[in-house]
Amino acid sequence: MADLAPTPNRRDWFAILLLLAVLAVVPPIAEAVGQPFAIKVASRVVVFAIAAVGLNLVLGFGGMVSLLHAGLFGVGGYVIGILAWHDFNGEALHLGPIAYAGTGNLLISLPLAVLVSAGAAALMGVVSLRTNGAYFIMITLAFNQMLYYLGVALQKYGGEDGLQIQGDLSLAGLDPSKRLVYFYVSLAALAVVMVLVQRLVGSRFGMVLRATAQNERRVKALGIPPTRYRLTAFALSGGIAGLAGALMASGQQFISPADMSWVRSGDLVVMCVLGGLTTVWGPVLGAALFLLLELGLSSLTNAWQLPFGLIVIGMAVWLHDGLIGAIRRWVQS
Amino acid sequence: MRRLLLAATMAAGCVVAANAADAPIKIGFISTFSGPGGVLGQELLDGFNLGLESTGGTLGGRKVEVIQADDQAKPDVGRQLADKMVESDHVQIITGVNFSNVMLAIAKPTLDAGVFVISPNAGQSQQAGKACNPHYFSTSFQNDVPAEAIGMYMTNKGIKRVYLLAPNYPAGKDSLAGFKMGFKGDVVGEVYTGFTQLDYAAEIAQIRAAKPDAVYFFYPGGLGINFVKQYAQAGMKTEVPLFGPSFSFDQTVLPAMGDAALGAYASAFWNEHYDNAASKKFVTDFEAKYHRLPAPYAAQAYDTARMLDAALKSIGGKIEDKPAFQKALETVKFDSVRGKFRFNTNHYPIQDYYLTEAVKDDKGRVVMAMKELIAADLADPYVQDCHMPAASN
Amino acid sequence: MSLPLFLEQTLNGVQLGVMLFLMSAGLTLVFGIMNLINLAHGALYMLGAFIAATVADKSGSFLLGAVVAVVATAAIGALLEVALLRRFYHRSHLDQVLVTFGLILVFNQVTQLIWGAVPMRFNLPDAVAGSIELFPGMNYPVFRLVILGVGLVVGLLLYVMIMRTRIGMWVRAGASNRAMASAIGVNVEMVFIGVFAAGAALAGLAGLMAGPILAVQVGMGEPVLILALVVTVIGGIGSINGALVAAIMIGLIDTFGRVLLSPALGSMVIFLAMAVILAWKPKGLFPVHG
User: Between the N and C ends of chain A, which has fewer C-beta atoms within 10 Å?
Assistant: First the structure.
């Protein structure tokens, strides 16, 4: 990651709009050709794309390889699940002196999920950011495993089996278990996240963040405290991952520790690298490629990991900036 | 507009139903085919395919199309596959699922869509109790029951002090809870270990210090191989006998355990040397086709295919008539490899449990030999929480 | 906890630590010298176990199985280096993670296609299969003592080789300054192939030593990879003695954590320890570079 991610430009805005537009027309096309299931696949792509875009804020722009993001994704999901559980079972949630009845109203629980996962990210970020490079990878892995085992230890909420959300969830009168509602709500969230991150990395904050990834000492010499910037980015990125997890839990009405395993963290990193780290929208392509390949190959053969692995290796060898690198070269030629 | 669309789809549905008798029955087979759990999916699929072969590739006289997919032991992946099979492939049955947590993610949405779910292995308590469903059936067992059976056996044998071990997850806790329902002696140690744990030296040392009369453990797959090998190497096998559920000692793990398993006991509703005609034919055919002995997973899946065939035959193959198909399953009669088989009111089996012991057969392979009947017609305890809703479409 | 039990658990902890050291020695070597994160280390470990189990089963000789496995994994390692991984020395850590992640998938699937999904048999020769009485009332598995011995010998050999021999000097020279090392006549290319092959052979050795204790099955490498990464990082990347100290420390923490703490805490105690150590010493216990 020697290359400083370039300052976002007008072409990036165009790409973001194009991607959102392409995703937005998936449902009508899917219904027209009689493949409504495609909408669910697209929803899954959108949700993971949100997490990947969030991760890439620290990965591509901050040079921090985090393996904590599946854990934070899960935290977001569990906030939705646990609040809905208490609402459904009519049992108040006691957090120290506070007693809360729980809720299935996503207007309340979604922001809470973002806040809690951002808070968790900030807390773990304070410790993790003392390290660098491979040490940072490993300490975030450690925290991810702790979150994972925490999920397993939540016997009340299903432990390893996971938590089935039984009550009804609602979002301002909309029902997220309806596939079209769920898709467009998720897509709207992706749009907000992409616009936010795109503006952020273009701002002074983004410039400092990208500079710390390149040369921390020089940033320090300018009198800017790099850790504060990195920590802010890390918390924000964690909040976005939490949002993705919360959306997934709402759509599937299910969340489990399996969603928090370190392998899933690795999957998110792979999505970012496959798509390309130097833009905000690259990880969206990466998430789509990863999930579609996984689904497509595994419905062809049970030995799908072989072709999947070979494709990943091939992309690592030949595509230096992931898919966006290939697209850029194709556009230029 | 929406109502119009609905009317159109209903009309289309009628057309489909009219042609249904010619169309193949579609079955979604979701199981774990990759990673350490991959052996389970393979056993289940091999058993299921063999069962289909034995019915001439048809169920109730109709052709069958099996669509299989790998859930990677991840609940969300399983859920996506189930959605795809229900909505895109229009399957009528989903089966194959081996892990409880994957089944929990799949069951509700699939059943809500009106598709039958037949579990050939996953034996979670939820669907046996409060969440029981007219369209959900289990052809295996409920997780607590094999453990309860071995607890009963140990009580009968006058074993006083046992030491319990299980991984720290719900199926492990269910298993130890089930054991304690059947066992009336003292539990001198109850240990929950990490479920990716490799080394058990520390636990084995604690067992040795506690000096129990017997050890009961619940370790499926690789965990069980690790534990049993290390237990034998520590010289503990001759000091304190090992007891486990059938899937801690079956043909997916026994070849790898080898001599380390000899002398261990398990509770089982079926084993590879079970003495009845259906079972003998199954084992012979399985060995001829796949060149290995089958595990109970394969037997459960084999039974699943043959049970579906018998139930569908009784209603002329009309799987589209869901209340009739449900009724046919509830009262199904077929030659089960476990001798007798019937469903309880919660659609989980009531079956006999036997004690089996790991011995060497005449070819030098480690197998489970049938010793004695522990309990006849054993049912799970969750059935009392199940208020089966009336049949529905 | 009585004194004999305490001693036995301490021995268990040290022995687990030495096994972890075997698993991480090759990883830290390649990581430290070539600056390559090789996630496929766990896959090489798995291959070592499968090859040794197969050869031992067919020939009846554990020793032959061991030799073949070590040679084969070294050869596979050398091949991987030449055909693929040498292009990644100067790429980002992320690209390395990506390519070796792909390798894990490929190796796992190929292993399943060749050997099937059912775990393999891997029996010990009778001489080391049983247990001996170390002191009254305490039987200890002989093979675990063998692992202890092999691990300590490997540690010593690696240390002597890197610090005291000409080969070690080349390796250190190539790692710190490629151009300079080439200029003074070191064939850096060959040295790197050699180091990578040695790292792979160490993975294979760890696999074949763990095989008789653990389940030899597809995917057995991943949980071990995590532990090895933990040890490597706590010890300080590239430090062999750091890896040994960290491995034994983790072995002891894990053993006593499991016995004394609640199961939920027991599972995460290793990761808790790693987080604390890295928060305190961000470059591990024995930092190699600055």
Answer: C
Q: Which residue has the higher pLDDT, C55 or B11?
A: C55
Q: C258–B203: do the CB atoms touch at under 8 Å?
A: yes
Residue B20 confidence (pLDDT): 55
Residues B236 and B367 in one domain: yes
CB atoms within 10 A of CB C170: 20
Confidence band of C164 (pLDDT split at 50, 70, 90): confident
Q: Is B102 helix (H, G, I), strand (E, B) or coil?
A: helix
How far apart are alpha carbons B147 and B127 in whole angstroms?
A: 19
Tell me how close the Cα of C233 comes to any Cα of chain A, in angstroms.
Answer: 6
- Which chain C residues are closer than 8 Å to A312 by Cβ? 98-99, 101-102, 105
Residue B246 shares a structural domain with residue B367: yes
Residue numbers of the domain that contains B108: 2-141+276-343
d(CA C76, CA C200): 8
Residue B17 main-chain phi, psi, to 5 deg? -60, -35
The pair of three-digit structure tokens given for residue C289, joined into one six-digit string: 């570079």
In contact, A139 and A131? CB cutoff 8 Å? yes
Q: Locate tokens 């129990």: which residue?
A: B212
Residue C134 tokens read as: 């170390």
- Pair B217, B227: CB distance under 8 Å: yes
pLDDT at residue B50 above 60?
A: yes
H or E stretch covering B47: helix B38-54
Dihedral angle sign, alpha carbons of residues A47, A243, A73, A204: positive
pLDDT surpasses 70 at C227: yes
Orientation of helix C166-176 relative to helix C142-164, angle to 10°: 70
According to CATH, the topology of domain A10-332 is ABC transporter involved in vitamin B12 uptake, BtuC (1.10.3470)
SS3 B202: helix
Comparing alpha-carbon positions, the chain A residue that sits nearest to B171 is A161
Query: Which residues of chain B have a CB within 8 Å of the CB of A259?
Result: 75-76
Summarize the confidence of residues B319-332 as an average pLDDT: 94
- Which among B354, B187, B203 has a CA at the least distance from the CA of B270? B354
Domain count, chain B: 2
A146 to chain B, closest Cα gap in Å: 13
Q: Do B359 and B237 belong together in one domain?
A: yes
Q: Do A149 and C268 touch (CB under 8 A)?
A: yes
Three-state secondary structure call for residue A109: helix
| Distance between C248 CA and the closest CA of chain A, angstroms | 18
Q: How confident is the model at residue A161 (pLDDT cuts 50, 70, 90)?
A: confident
Q: What is the ipTM of this complex?
A: 0.87
Q: Would you say residue B390 lies in a domain?
A: no
Domain ranges of chain A: 10-332
Q: What are C54-100's pLDDT values in tens digits? A: 999 999 999 999 999 999 999 999 999 999 999 998 888 888 988 99
Is residue B381 within 8 angstroms of chain C, CB to CB?
no
Beta-strand pair B62-70/B58-59: antiparallel
Strand, helix or coil at A96? coil
Asked if the Cβ–Cβ distance from C215 to B235 is below 8 Å, we say no
Q: What is the pLDDT of residue B9?
A: 45
Based on the fold, state whether residues B68 and B186 are members of the same structural domain.
Answer: no
Q: Is A281 helix (H, G, I), strand (E, B) or coil?
A: coil
Give C92-95's long-range contacts (Cβ < 8 A, gap of 24+): C92/A1, C92/A2, C93/A1, C93/A65, C93/A133, C93/A134, C93/A137, C93/C37, C94/A1, C94/A59, C94/A65, C94/A269, C94/A273, C94/A277, C95/A273, C95/A316, C95/A320
Q: A258-297: per-residue pLDDT in tens?
A: 999 988 999 999 999 999 998 999 999 999 999 999 988 8
Sequence-separated (6 or more) residues with CB below 8 Å from residue B178? B143, B144, B145, B146, B147, B148, B151
In a domain, B388, yes or no: no
